Amino acid sequence: MSADERPGGKIAMVVKLTAQAGKRAELAEALGSILAAVEDEPGCRMYLLHEDLKDDDALWFYEMYDDQAALDAHAKSEAFQALGPKVAPFLAAAPDMKIVRPIGGKGL
């Protein structure tokens, strides 16, 4: 059975956002609307924003969803669609997104 066929297979994303020099706080603030919106998203299990401790211009997201359908619904949500114009003025580069599948550990 492939990973995609596993029943209840969670899916996650690790996303690096690189702010323009000195704009990380503004970028984090602009992300506030999506942090609030995911509170009510079915299938969204974790949506955590982190500051990088070594790179003053980097933020990281860790997201976990029940399945691919929940991730797809998040990407199509009104809140996510509205996010681009809010964060674009603070980004130095396109987000670096990695889709991963959790296989074990505390919290899963």
Can you walk through the features of this model?
The chain is an alpha+beta fold and 108 residues long. Helix content is 30%, strand content 27%. The chain contains four helices and four strands, in the order E-H-H-E-E-H-H-E. It has helices at 24-30, 32-37, 68-76, 78-87, and strands spanning 11-18, 44-51, 58-65, 96-100. A four-stranded antiparallel sheet has the order 2-3-1-4, with helices on one face. Strand 2 and strand 3 (58-65) form a beta hairpin. The longest helix has 10 residues, at 78-87. It is globular, with a radius of gyration of 15 Å. The protein starts with 10 loop residues before the first strand and ends in an 8-residue tail after the last strand. Residues 1-7 have low confidence and may be disordered.
Largest sheet features: 4 strands, antiparallel
Largest sheet, spatial ordering of strands: 2-3-1-4
* Estimated structural class: alpha+beta
- What is the CA-based Rg, rounded? 15 Å
List descriptors:
4-stranded antiparallel sheet, 108 residues, 4 helices
Short description:
The protein is an alpha+beta fold and 108 residues long.
List the helices and strands and how they pair.
Elements lengths: L10 E8 L5 H7 L1 H6 L6 E8 L6 E8 L2 H9 L1 H10 L8 E5 L8
